[in-house]
């Protein structure tokens, strides 16, 4: 799709059809789903040919003409994502090559690697050896390989350049619904609009808003470490700014992949590390079971999840994701560092702050033993709380909306309020435990695009849409027949 991208420094006032707040993979997947005329993933070859012919010969069908504005403080796609990956030195994604933001074709990241002679940046995940995946052709062609951070980033930039949008650098701090927030089921969509206010005072007026804010909540601090002096305790996103050269012995607290990545970062910089977890590290390829990725079983998992109550879904989210897990490729590295003596892994232990030494080091009880550390880094995850985001908090104060367990209570169309959509990790209550992953974000983006009627032409019989019922015209229209007074009148 030919397109253009406009990047601006937020003029005083803008107007658009859809404003996407956020610029991570979930936001890019939403932009792709809005603009791509159809997806190859769920259509037969015949339907694809029909859709292609409709676009070629028909007027008024095909790619969406909606004007889309993307708002993010970084001023670039994947800004926050890049920062986190660079901070931890992550070389390869945990998600397979079939998980990416391109709505059009699930094979496109693999095709990008082949076209650019970069297949060596896709490494084996080990999934091809999982017995239950043997019959899945995707594992044999490379779709379950892990892409490098570099190729995934380049692919996303390439994709964004093909999708028409305005990119506004700025922090969205306030959201106002312009119809006084009254829910009227029969009111026209045109009656609802939103004003997004940025930190610099500029405004964006739009018909619909998509919140793609990423994981939102409060970082978890273990209760028994709350009294550690703040200059010796830090949440992992800020470790580079606070970890000093004289901090040679470090305690990392957490039992998931991020905790392991933090430990690796410290080890690579010449430090001795103790990795402490409440339970043994769980070795698993992905943070959820492969049945959520396997196309043969994914729909069943999603259906069973959706047909539970919201309270049951909240419990299911915790059970499916567990307390974190670590892929085999990382566990192998952990074992090497353990063998070298630079890393100690303690599980089943809850660290407790005891005291500080005269030189400021921290004494921590680890079960029956006490250990002294120069610094403590927390990687215990976050407690979900969408109101921890300033934009959501300001909107909630004006138009309170239902939340369950810190997540927005959204509709089947991922609407939190009329024309206010949620994608990414915040949509977990409706999308499922993979909502925060790229595959879940891709599915959520498709739902939002359908709710915005970007794909309505595919089901429109008048325009011979690829997904319309070709036999509709064979049925007698009762309204037409009722206007005939006799058989002769209809001749």
Overview of this protein structure:
The chain is of the alpha/beta class. The protein has helices at residues 25-35, 45-57, 79-88, 108-115, 138-141, 149-162, 239-242, 257-268, 298-306, 310-321, 328-340, 390-398, 428-431, 438-451, 478-482; strands at 5-8, 13-21, 68-72, 122-123, 146-147, 165-169, 172-177, 194-198, 203-211, 217-219, 233-235, 249-253, 272-277, 343-347, 352-356, 362-366, 369-373, 375-378, 382-384, 403-404, 407-408, 415-417, 420-422. Strands 1, 2, 3, 6, 7, 8, 9, 22 and 23 form a nine-stranded mixed sheet that branches. Strand 8 and strand 9 (203-211) form a beta hairpin. The radius of gyration is 25 Å and the shape is globular.
List the helices and strands and how they pair.
Elements: E1 5-8, E2 13-21, H1 25-35, H2 45-57, E3 68-72, H3 79-88, H4 108-115, E4 122-123, H5 138-141, E5 146-147, H6 149-162, E6 165-169, E7 172-177, E8 194-198, E9 203-211, E10 217-219, E11 233-235, H7 239-242, E12 249-253, H8 257-268, E13 272-277, H9 298-306, H10 310-321, H11 328-340, E14 343-347, E15 352-356, E16 362-366, E17 369-373, E18 375-378, E19 382-384, H12 390-398, E20 403-404, E21 407-408, E22 415-417, E23 420-422, H13 428-431, H14 438-451, H15 478-482
Parallel strand pairs: 1-6, 2-3, 2-9, 3-6, 9-23, 11-18, 12-13, 12-18, 13-14
Antiparallel strand pairs: 4-5, 7-8, 8-9, 10-19, 15-16, 16-17, 20-21, 22-23
């Amino acid at each position: 799709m030919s397109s253009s991208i406009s990047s601006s420094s937020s003029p005083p006032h803008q107007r658009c059809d859809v404003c996407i707040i956020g610029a991570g993979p979930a936001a890019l997947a939403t932009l792709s789903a809005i603009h791509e005329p159809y997806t190859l993933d769920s259509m037969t070859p015949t339907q694809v040919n029909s859709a292609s012919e409709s676009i070629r010969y028909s007027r008024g069908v095909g790619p969406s003409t909606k004007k889309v504005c993307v708002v993010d403080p970084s001023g670039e796609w994947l800004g926050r994502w890049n920062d986190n990956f660079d901070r931890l030195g992550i070389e390869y994604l945990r998600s397979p090559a079939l998980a990416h933001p391109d709505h059009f074709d699930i094979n496109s990241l693999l095709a990008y690697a082949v076209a650019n002679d970069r297949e060596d940046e896709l490494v084996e995940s080990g999934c091809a050896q999982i017995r239950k995946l043997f019959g899945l052709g995707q594992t044999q062609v490379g779709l379950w390989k892990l892409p490098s951070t570099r190729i995934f980033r380049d692919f996303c930039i390439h994709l964004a350049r093909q999708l028409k949008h305005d990119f506004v650098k700025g922090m969205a701090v306030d959201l106002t619904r312009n119809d006084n927030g009254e829910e009227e089921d029969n009111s026209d969509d045109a009656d609802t609009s939103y004003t997004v206010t940025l930190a610099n005072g500029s405004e964006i007026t739009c018909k619909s808003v998509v919140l793609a804010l990423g994981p939102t909540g409060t970082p978890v601090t273990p209760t028994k470490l709350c009294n550690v002096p703040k200059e010796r305790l830090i949440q992992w996103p800020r470790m580079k700014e606070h970890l000093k050269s004289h901090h040679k012995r470090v305690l990392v607290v957490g039992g998931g992949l991020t905790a392991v990545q933090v430990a690796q970062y410290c080890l690579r910089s010449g430090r001795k590390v103790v990795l402490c977890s409440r339970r043994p590290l769980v070795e698993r390829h992905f943070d959820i079971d492969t049945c959520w990725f396997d196309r043969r079983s994914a729909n069943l998992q999603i259906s069973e999840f959706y047909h539970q109550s919201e309270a049951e879904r909240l419990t299911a989210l915790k059970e499916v994701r567990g307390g974190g897990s670590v892929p085999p490729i990382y566990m192998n590295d952990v074992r090497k560092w353990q063998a070298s003596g630079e890393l100690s892994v303690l599980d089943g232990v809850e660290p407790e702050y005891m005291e500080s030494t005269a030189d400021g080091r921290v004494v921590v009880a680890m079960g029956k033993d006490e250990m002294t550390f120069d610094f403590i880094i927390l990687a215990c995850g976050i407690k979900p709380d969408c109101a921890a985001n300033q934009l959501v908090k300001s909107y909630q104060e004006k138009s309170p909306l239902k939340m369950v367990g810190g997540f927005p209570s959204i509709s089947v169309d991922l609407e939190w309020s009329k024309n206010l959509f949620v994608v990414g990790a915040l949509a977990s209550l409706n999308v499922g435990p993979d909502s925060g992953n790229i595959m879940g974000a891709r599915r959520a983006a498709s739902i939002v695009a359908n709710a915005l009627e970007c794909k309505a032409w595919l089901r429109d019989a008048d325009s011979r849409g690829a997904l319309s019922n070709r036999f509709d015209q064979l049925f007698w229209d009762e309204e037409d027949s009722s206007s005939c007074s006799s058989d002769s009148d209809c001749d």
